[in-house]
Structures
1.
Amino acid sequence: MKGNEAMAEAAIRAGCDAYFGYPITPQSEIIEYLMHENPAERTGMVVLQAESEIAAINMVYGAAGCGKRAMTTSSSPGISLKQEGLSYIAGAELPCLIVNVVRGGPGLGTIQPSQSDYFQAVKGGGHGDYKLIVLAPATVQESVDYVKLGFDLAFKYRNPVMILSDGIIGQMMEKVELFEQQPLLTEEFEWATVGKKPGRSSVFVTSLQLKPEEQENVNHRLQAKYREIEKHEVRYESFLCDDAEYLLTAFGSCARITKKAQEIAREKGYKVGLLRPQTLYPFPTVAFNKLAGQMKGILTVEMNAGQMVEDVRLAVNGQTRVEHFGRFGGMIPDPEEIFQAFEQKIIGG
Amino acid sequence: MKGNEAMAEAAIRAGCDAYFGYPITPQSEIIEYLMHENPAERTGMVVLQAESEIAAINMVYGAAGCGKRAMTTSSSPGISLKQEGLSYIAGAELPCLIVNVVRGGPGLGTIQPSQSDYFQAVKGGGHGDYKLIVLAPATVQESVDYVKLGFDLAFKYRNPVMILSDGIIGQMMEKVELFEQQPLLTEEFEWATVGKKPGRSSVFVTSLQLKPEEQENVNHRLQAKYREIEKHEVRYESFLCDDAEYLLTAFGSCARITKKAQEIAREKGYKVGLLRPQTLYPFPTVAFNKLAGQMKGILTVEMNAGQMVEDVRLAVNGQTRVEHFGRFGGMIPDPEEIFQAFEQKIIGG
Amino acid sequence: MARKGDIVIDIERCKGCEVCLEACPNQVLAISNAVNSKGYHYAVKVNSNCIGCANCAVVCPDAVITVYREKK
Amino acid sequence: MARKGDIVIDIERCKGCEVCLEACPNQVLAISNAVNSKGYHYAVKVNSNCIGCANCAVVCPDAVITVYREKK
Amino acid sequence: MTEEIIIAGFGGQGVLSMGQILCYGGVMQNLEVSWMPSYGPEMRGGTANCTAIISDQLISSPVLSTFDTAIVLNQPSMDKFENTVKPGGLLIYEENGTTRKPQRTDINICAISAFEESVKMKNTKVFNMIIIGGFLKMKPVIDLENVIKGLKKVLPDRYHNLIPLNEEAIRKGMEIIKPEHVALIRDIHS
Amino acid sequence: MTEEIIIAGFGGQGVLSMGQILCYGGVMQNLEVSWMPSYGPEMRGGTANCTAIISDQLISSPVLSTFDTAIVLNQPSMDKFENTVKPGGLLIYEENGTTRKPQRTDINICAISAFEESVKMKNTKVFNMIIIGGFLKMKPVIDLENVIKGLKKVLPDRYHNLIPLNEEAIRKGMEIIKPEHVALIRDIHS
Amino acid sequence: MADSLIDPGNLVYKRTDVLNDRIMHYCPGCGHGTAHRMLAEAIDELGIQSETIGVAPVGCSVLAYYYLNVDMSEAAHGRAPAVATGIKRVFPEKYVFTYQGDGDLAAIGTAETIHACNRGENILIVFINNGIYGMTGGQMAPTTLEGMKSSTSPRGRDISSMGNPLKMTELVAQLPGTYFVTRHSVHTPANVRKTKRALKKALEYQKLNKGTCFVEIVANCPSGWKMTPVQSNKWMEQNMFPFYPLGDIKVPE
Amino acid sequence: MADSLIDPGNLVYKRTDVLNDRIMHYCPGCGHGTAHRMLAEAIDELGIQSETIGVAPVGCSVLAYYYLNVDMSEAAHGRAPAVATGIKRVFPEKYVFTYQGDGDLAAIGTAETIHACNRGENILIVFINNGIYGMTGGQMAPTTLEGMKSSTSPRGRDISSMGNPLKMTELVAQLPGTYFVTRHSVHTPANVRKTKRALKKALEYQKLNKGTCFVEIVANCPSGWKMTPVQSNKWMEQNMFPFYPLGDIKVPE
Ligand SMILES: Cc1ncc(C[n+]2csc(CCOP(=O)(O)OP(=O)(O)O)c2C)c(N)n1
Ligand SMILES: Cc1ncc(C[n+]2csc(CCOP(=O)(O)OP(=O)(O)O)c2C)c(N)n1
Ligand code: SF4
Ligand code: SF4
Ligand code: SF4
Ligand code: SF4
Ligand code: SF4
Ligand code: SF4
Ligand SMILES: [Mg+2]
Ligand SMILES: [Mg+2]
């Protein structure tokens, strides 16, 4: 199954109630698959093609505010349009799932794979202090699993979750095992607009506070939640780090390629480890910090001009040198050139 | 003059050709002042209230693509809506000026002053690898001066420039000296859509590249430009840093308040310096890095949950401890509590 | 003849907009010189000509007025 | 009688869409078996019935055809 | 000299322009000034207030949590700002608009019946000028002449005929302000 | 065993589905597979291509710059991919679609006249199956039986009656593929 | 004597329970309050309070959720129809309404308005047209009349540079997705009562699943127009109604 | 003999120089090519190449700047009318046009379209209505007909869940800001010629400063519709034209 289609199937199986989307390459297969599958009949899931990305994210806001599993997907320019909506959703503490199948930017850019929306995803592309939980799948299997995980985390923390995929993962096909169909939610959450029952006061979903004091309290609550998330939800994978003197790090599709570069480096006798963050927020800061001491140098490999490298540097806090190697604008590095960059920037540098 | 009005007057005097905006508190005085002044008669400047922030930024794209001085202003939620447009403008390398009079977020938040759009401004809230030049005025006078400086930098680098103001600077009144009226641009830039003259090939303004190779070249060109900007355009102000053992840092309105906290600290005998970045991108990385060695600790003070502190930490690279103190959601720290935070987090910490 | 009516004005809610004055067929209402705790000069009943038509209450933006009318 | 005409087909531009075939009043055009370097079976002139009406050129999406007609 | 003032009342009482007039007056007297409103029509109802700072030094923070002087024109403002006056500072309250007297003993307290007076002057629009007068009586930080110049800046040209009336109101305010409690008077030139 | 294949030609030549069929075949044979198209209708015209990887190990990168096998169906694809074949690798080219012969001497080169053959079979739709046959002849990485199973996955149900025809085409391809240049044959099980 | 009348038995009008008792933040005389009350009374009289979900985007009525005693969602500027779509699609049995200003519905939210109506979302859109951006301090709205002054048209709206006032209601009436489209006001007792009837009808129609109901209420904004409430209502009659005539525009056959 | 005709003196039709000689990336038989050519010829015949600035947003025609030999700006999806407004406002003397698909103009760009037309921006909007999102691979557009199949309406457009096809051209014709609104096609020689006349007229009107000119071209998308070009033109006549009838909708008095 194609990554995008697999994610669409995963959404149905995860018991998603409502999908709102708008076509954009390289993610249109998601809505196409859903429309084709007609999940209204399979599970009762709503699928609607919105008039724009902005409408789609606000439809998600509406459905999520009802305590339903709602999601939208898009690619870079479309995700930029959703920033106001994302900030509202984060501010109103609504659970939902957003998928960004990243393509090369800035602007219209290319439709080729890229990872240049890392900052937008983890630092908050919208206004205000908020955080999305950001999951970065490296395989079609993970894309599928993260749909379910994403909804679970979204509801656990009442927080929007983003899957940061890219053109490679979205377009490629590989073996995948799908989980069983999950039931739709039936719970009526006390924070959700479901109709004011007699005896309880009316619910409102809002991110507005007239008084700055109250807004500050909201922010404190959000920050406390983010600390919780940072404590409990960090996920990463490491390969051959125990004896490593050098560390490679990369996320998503790029990590697959970097893994091959690691193999090359090991073959050539360099003791190289690989750390792959699976959650970009919360970032595996502690893991990097602990490993940094044993490393003579760290190379982050990204399909961008250098974004995750900042979080790695923040984690490492000067313990060792952290360099970046990137291809961008839709170009994909190959293992050999990653290895060369490693030799040049880390061994030679 | 109110900060917002002063900026509007500065725009007229800077020879701005076209302003496109949409009302939002706390920046509506800018368009109100312009409409009231009717600069069409004074200088020929166009002022148009657009149907939305998205329309406004795209009108700016159109006018900037003609080689004209174009600008728009908004506040946080409106700036989020402009992210796609900003990414396009950066990708097409058009010069223009954007003002964000920041209010408290996320979501609708409050209309009170905040600095929580720092990340959005400096890390790129839109998709793709791009940078805005970000100027952070701390006084009404600087707001005025940065309008002119902003246009100059925008045209020097063919890059969008953002003035990151906030509700305090926008709403307050203080003494200000206005520069003389500048002439409108008359130059026909070779990159601008002005009508295809016989004998030259047609111009197109675009951020699209079909081939990833070409898009990567565009990105390399952009990155090279950013390196130039980082080399030449860093601006900051420092106070009593020579003998300092501790450093306070803050930007914009918050720096004014922090300066008062510095005075308190100095009165109490602490050797405290203050570094105020005036450009947030390019960030005064070198200045921080140099100073860090002599410091026992650094406190960044921001009206947010901790954003600039990351850039300070990246600059300091582990040389000393960097802590953050923030009020947010529209709350404004007072000098006394900043001083207390300093004592607690830096001296006591 | 019209039935007799009466109204109760929740003066703390009243903002003194005078819209009810316009709507009353019998000039029952006027604006007081005194202000409520919000600083508004509120509406008061100045005579007993009320017929309980509820016009005042119906147009009042702030839902200030309750209306009574004698039963037939 | 109609004047005589002729056309020139820039076969490298042609995408073989057949729209011109439909537009020609005199069935002058057909699609070749051969392909151009883009892989398209291109349009060819198969007779000399052309009257230079330019219909084919006017509907051709790819501006492939140039039309000539004998002067009166 | 630095004078940090908060002025608070209902919207429509001329709260914001009082601060502006004082600041423009300060500019005329070649002082540094800063004026910062509690802004935004997005927040309807409730109280409006502004912070005005007049100083012979550069002003660092336009936003403050304590003040040399608080001028409160209604009860909610008294409730909110009485405690923000620095010890030895000044609280001026408008009698008609407030329902209880201030409680503090460590500050100077003055009452002013500006509304009544404005009714007497047959022009309730001069209400706020009367209060300015009262304030200047207590804290002559700006010369009357400069306040009038400042007023000219704030007032649209078409109202300049009202300047004499306003000047009269200021003088009236100077007359009618009533010190009610005197604490240690802090030197306003500190 | 890892076989990394690029298949390239005009859109409409069935380039993408060839890769898919091979990969589904690989899955049927319990191998790891990865298929990655040059995607996007946003880019009209030009060539389409896909990368198919079949391996008995986990596949790290779905995107490659060099290949064990290149299958090129038109001249632009030959121009683009001839040089991406690893030394000792295999290049298969379709004769009707290309105008010049490959130049390299360090790789194995085969020609196949799939278009001609498909015309003979009176069904140009089997064009790409013929080529799959040719490829499998040279590199029997997947059993025919599993390829047919893969085909069933890719083909909509309503076309399953065409399976025998497709199988025939594969066999035909195995017959007609013509090795033109033999270099050192790299072990496909490396 | 009169006092004796004040007795529950004689009650003819009191505020509905679907409004809670918070004092609204609206300026004196503002039509929003009356419009809120009519909507609340319509919900009350239909007995659908527990099945109703409202959406109010930014604008002076952003706090509608603070007064209307039904579950509500605040929405981003202009996006209420999309938010309402999201709600209605997951809760097709509930009564869903939006309550939007003219800046919201007819400027930034044009696309969402047109498309919700064009899809025939089974929702009620209440459109408060006061010809101005009230909340942000009286800027020109898409509906501001020719020559009308606002803080961004200080010399009056000039059509040639600022464009025409937009009759959004007439536009959506053209769309096959709308079922009931009507224009009212709340400035006199008679108009208030008509407005309530229209709102009730519109909510009732929602059960039929026949498409979008759209109720425009032409309203005053005394603060934005810089008039007293009573003046503003006069001005509205004389200037707004000729351009935005009251009455039904599209009614079910 | 026939060869002797091929002589500059006998030339009756050749590609205009306002198209450069790049081979367009459009699919075989796609109406975009013909529409480009007509626009180019109109510009050519009016002699305004050096005073014309075009805007093409994303959609299959995103590369229009690559073929049309005039200065052009690529625009974000849906925003061409805003970009064109920015251009026209700083260059009121130039001829400014947008060239937009139906997804672009009638879905994401609805607000920009309506408001540019409502302001009466003195620009030409060329609207290519092929009832589908061509570029992204054939998804449903706002203009997709009832029952019409697309990749996101695989069982045909279902009005009750997906909404109605939108007649944007009729809507903008209602707005006082539009001056000339007309609908054409480019699938037969006669229609092509009419389209050119309309485009020429629309560009000429721009000098009058009377408002927006809006030219819809109903076009085929053989790839998106999954038909041969010739089939698609037939289908268009039989299915698109009844719903989107050709002809003038609003003409200057
Ligand atoms: C994205 C965004 N842009 C602008 C604003 C500022 N804003 C808040 S309400 C409003 C318009 C209010 O006008 P209207 O919708 O007519 O409602 P009214 O206040 O008149 O009832 C605006 C522009 C905002 N909150 N968000
Ligand atoms: C913000 C954004 N959303 C979506 C897209 C993807 N996209 C590109 S073109 C297009 C629509 C194309 O349809 P249309 O406007 O009808 O033009 P056509 O290709 O049919 O000529 C879409 C959705 C994009 N580039 N940007
Ligand atoms: S209408 Fe209501 S708020 Fe206005 S004056 Fe009358 S009672 Fe008071
Ligand atoms: S109920 Fe009727 S008569 Fe009585 S006060 Fe109200 S409007 Fe006047
Ligand atoms: S219309 Fe043009 S492209 Fe199509 S077949 Fe004819 S010549 Fe070729
Ligand atoms: S010019 Fe007319 S007659 Fe000649 S080939 Fe073209 S369409 Fe046919
Ligand atoms: S600003 Fe206008 S719309 Fe808003 S509450 Fe005041 S009067 Fe009403
Ligand atoms: S996809 Fe459709 S609109 Fe796009 S070029 Fe192909 S035929 Fe034309
Ligand atoms: Mg309004
Ligand atoms: Mg289309």
2.
Amino acid sequence: MMNSPDLKVNIGGLILKNPVLTASGTFGYGEEFAPFVNLHRLGAVVVKGISLAPRAGNPPPRIVETACGMLNAIGLENVGVDRFLAEKLPYLRGLGATVIVNILGETLDEYRELARRLGEEGDIAAIELNISCPNVKKGGVAFGSDPKMARAVTEAVCRHARQPVIMKLSPNVTDIRVIARAAEEGGAAAVSLINTLLGMAIDAETRRPKLANLVGGLSGPAIKPVALRMVWQVASAVKIPVIGIGGIVTAVDAIEFLLAGATAIEVGTANFVNPKATEEILAGIRSYLERHKMQSARELIGALAPDA
Amino acid sequence: MMNSPDLKVNIGGLILKNPVLTASGTFGYGEEFAPFVNLHRLGAVVVKGISLAPRAGNPPPRIVETACGMLNAIGLENVGVDRFLAEKLPYLRGLGATVIVNILGETLDEYRELARRLGEEGDIAAIELNISCPNVKKGGVAFGSDPKMARAVTEAVCRHARQPVIMKLSPNVTDIRVIARAAEEGGAAAVSLINTLLGMAIDAETRRPKLANLVGGLSGPAIKPVALRMVWQVASAVKIPVIGIGGIVTAVDAIEFLLAGATAIEVGTANFVNPKATEEILAGIRSYLERHKMQSARELIGALAPDA
Amino acid sequence: MADQYQSKAKVLKSERLATDVCRLTLLCPDIAKKARPGQFVMLRIAPAALDPLIRRPFSIYQTTAGGQLQILYKVVGKGTGIMAGLHPGDMVDLVGPLGTGFPIDVRPRHCLIGGGMGAAPLFFLATWLLRHPDAEPVVLLGARNREELRAIAPEFENLGIPVGLATDDGSEGHHGYVVDLLADSLTGEERPWHVFSCGPYPMLRAVAKLCHLRSRRCHVSLETMMACGIGACLGCALPRAGLNGYLHVCRDGPVLEAGQVAWF
Amino acid sequence: MADQYQSKAKVLKSERLATDVCRLTLLCPDIAKKARPGQFVMLRIAPAALDPLIRRPFSIYQTTAGGQLQILYKVVGKGTGIMAGLHPGDMVDLVGPLGTGFPIDVRPRHCLIGGGMGAAPLFFLATWLLRHPDAEPVVLLGARNREELRAIAPEFENLGIPVGLATDDGSEGHHGYVVDLLADSLTGEERPWHVFSCGPYPMLRAVAKLCHLRSRRCHVSLETMMACGIGACLGCALPRAGLNGYLHVCRDGPVLEAGQVAWF
Ligand SMILES: Cc1cc2nc3c(=O)[nH]c(=O)nc-3n(C[C@H](O)[C@H](O)[C@H](O)COP(=O)(O)OP(=O)(O)OC[C@H]3O[C@@H](n4cnc5c(N)ncnc54)[C@H](O)[C@@H]3O)c2cc1C
Ligand SMILES: Cc1cc2nc3c(=O)[nH]c(=O)nc-3n(C[C@H](O)[C@H](O)[C@H](O)COP(=O)(O)OP(=O)(O)OC[C@H]3O[C@@H](n4cnc5c(N)ncnc54)[C@H](O)[C@@H]3O)c2cc1C
Ligand SMILES: Cc1cc2nc3c(=O)[nH]c(=O)nc-3n(C[C@H](O)[C@H](O)[C@H](O)COP(=O)(O)O)c2cc1C
Ligand SMILES: Cc1cc2nc3c(=O)[nH]c(=O)nc-3n(C[C@H](O)[C@H](O)[C@H](O)COP(=O)(O)O)c2cc1C
Ligand code: FES
Ligand code: FES
């Protein structure tokens, strides 16, 4: 009999039990999914983006469905780093989940301070740096589309964090490889992509935008082809691991990202559609490996055949 | 009784009977849709992109379905300008259709020569300049993402064409307004957007790309939120008219683009899904105007209410 | 939050009660068993496709001991349009039971006031209240017209409790808003009144205002756009009274004390 | 191209003939009336949703005077999975009839060789050939196993013509490829043979090669990815013999003379 395939992957020194992670903002603080998923079985739980101070977020409507996708303009509502550490982290710790904290700031100082605070917590496995969220006017967009600023944030965070730092990239740029390389040069242990595409929805009857914020971030299966292309481009442009995100719903989707060069993947909008998505994807990757008689999930990474 | 609403719109001096056009490459040379649509009733028929010499296009597979969209890497297959003028244009002329010719070249000289040739034809209403098709390695991408080159092509074509020139914009850029302004400065009578988003699809079983060309252009309802956002951004960045394209399937979709600031719209992938889409959209816009007691389609242009 | 399930449910019955009012009967024992009045489910209508992508929230209309769960709904768009075409034997996918239910205290008298499909959770509530011998609930129902009202009212009338009716077009009952009937219903001071309401936002606002002026305890069941239904996406935000941040309707609600809400 | 229609068609029957082989009977008089063997339709399976977005091409299996049109199909993915769940009364949307049909010339003898669902257009062709008293068609059918073969073969057998059978697993007929039966079938030189084939690409290539070596006239019905089916998208390209540009299967085909194709 064959051994069960080895699912471990290495994200810049951090060994994860498997390549299936949750995407920030789509999995709450983890607890919300406890009725549906065994959190400790996931590669990691990436929690909702945390800022230094709590944020109330944008006025509603904040979300709207689009064709095979959704727009969100949550406005980075979160409990702030203090309450996160006091109220949310202990629960995940208690379950033995691997925790990655997604952070966001509006200034270099905020990022630095967040990195310092989280660095003090031994059981936070990694920090994911969100410099790409398109919803907030200040900061967000500029950091994510300017390679110099992207590099500066990465450097600042890496200097203060004790954990590996994952830089999360925005797709709303002409050449995402340039930003990925800036993150690599800044010391990022890995890059994750893509964050949402900037989009808009209008109600033809009322003639008003469907989101109070006018524009929002597009996610879900609709964006998968764009995400897959960018992961494939970035994987050959940097030497650090790439985490693939965007429209992953099934194990087949996840495997496509691994083949395109991702070392791990994050499941986002699919968690809303199918709360059990992450565990089902994990099971599906395992049975794919068994069916194809592969020993390790790592054999899939970048294993795209050269020609159609 | 109220008069039937006025559907006429003005694209840089060219008066179109209504704002419903076809998107290049999705309506063949018009003739293919004659069993389904009265071509002369449309605002204009925008034909498949024409180059100076005929092009055979890319090897198959050229298309693949994605969630609420499709990827194509046709490779700009077309009969070339000579056969277009000799074999295709007369049919459309005979039906009394308003014809806009989409053109593509790999050098400034090719664009110039195409503009000159088409300029000689009195019954071509306008030229749409495709500098954004992501499928062809040479030329295409560079012109579309560099404002200087975009301006240079526009100037070259405008100098030689007798018709209004519409510059078609690529969405694969950090700030589409910059390219739109370059086109405006170059003398474009209008801009049309968006062309396809660059995407990719992989077959997890064979581990091969699903398109022989590896990457292709994403179109269809999936991209509508991105298109709508870009149209809204560009409409407030330039003074020339904007033609909205991207995922339009129904009259409601079309009206959303008009509200976002488009003067006219082009229907693309929807023609495959519903060959009668263009005429149905036209009928739907008319009944919307009647229901809302509006005299003219022009009242909808940019009429987005300021706040949600 | 432990008692939440994701379950595939078989369609047992798919009925049309009026032109655009339908009722779906599903077999879903785990959710049916735990559901309380005011709670809702998130329904994935066409699990084989990615459009519609996002689940749709529906109040639970009724459950049976046999593990059945009913939804009363109006066809308003794509998802409900597809729902109306479901056949017995088709499979849907449910997440639930979700949200807070109506707080049930049998000391006061209860006035249940619903507009349109807002009747759905109130019917479930009425059946629960009637389990208690002291309960004397009063129901007020509003609908656009007689046809819609006839799709909703009979099941309440069969409970043998007083039911006041109103239609927008006057084709049955009071010609006007159902809220117009509320003031006259909240009479008798032997027992305090507790008002429960569900329906369109302007109606709930009017109910909340009247209850505030009359110092009646009032709970409303509210709707916002929801992506997850379980408190994870933060999409269902509703301004909190005093504009002190946001409530999240899927988790803090959908049933909220009227005073918690910043009414606009 | 004038005789093409876009029509809403009502599902009359939705049958499962084997584990993954189904047959759909639609009421679609305009298309049924004009359809010829070898032509196909583009089916929009779930017109109320945008996923699956692109129409799916299916050969026409049979038409009736009453305006019915049948499709024989295998459940292979999302679209056909949803098709298999259609109920009588559901509506689908068709574009057709599309493409070139089989060129019918009654002077030669005809050998129809089909693999799997490739049998579908050949059945329509067989019924047309039999309208002519001189026709003596021979049919060869291949399938994965007996179950699949039994879903396909009986209707051919009922026509009272010779039917040769093969299965991949040997559970019925020849154990191996149906092409293995072809050489022995093309005997007798009184009338020239005309071979018509539809099935998986490797099978068609083998048929084309054998016919080329034996100088038999051969038409094949090919499949490529199609978005429009009407010659507009240029997606259905197939390399032309001599690698001299591309054929477009929806318009130049799906039935092509074997010699037109660059076989790989
Ligand atoms: C807690 C709760 C309980 C509800 N209970 C009932 C009920 O018992 N019976 C009933 O008929 N309706 C109920 N609704 C409303 C119901 O969810 C919508 O009518 C339904 O989602 C419409 O789907 P659609 O695809 O047909 O409409 P669409 O065409 O998608 O949109 C039409 C409108 O439906 C609403 N809607 C669509 N998607 C959502 C969503 N994900 N979350 C919230 N609203 C949405 C929006 O107002 C939207 O403008 C409830 C809503 C909530 C939040
Ligand atoms: C001219 C023609 C006639 C056909 N006739 C029949 C028939 O009579 N019976 C039958 O069972 N099948 C027939 N097919 C194949 C049939 O179109 C596919 O099996 C069907 O589209 C699968 O859809 P799906 O959504 O289930 O598969 P998906 O999950 O979407 O994909 C599975 C596979 O189906 C094929 N496919 C999917 N979409 C298309 C498309 N738009 N165009 C072409 N191929 C596609 C591809 O090979 C794809 O890899 C025919 C194909 C063509 C081109
Ligand atoms: C409701 C919602 C909230 C999100 N919040 C965050 C966030 O706080 N930080 C972040 O980096 N990304 C956030 N994202 C982006 C996701 O993490 C992910 O990058 C994106 O949704 C694409 O993946 P998907 O298509 O699988 O959803 C959010 C996405 C959604 C839908
Ligand atoms: C099959 C196909 C071929 C296309 N060919 C061209 C082309 O030749 N020239 C061009 O400018 N755009 C071309 N496009 C882009 C469309 O004109 C349009 O910009 C794009 O598809 C977005 O619109 P849609 O979502 O409505 O399809 C093509 C699109 C498709 C799907
Ligand atoms: S619907 Fe997601 S948090 Fe309420
Ligand atoms: S399928 Fe579109 S050209 Fe053949």
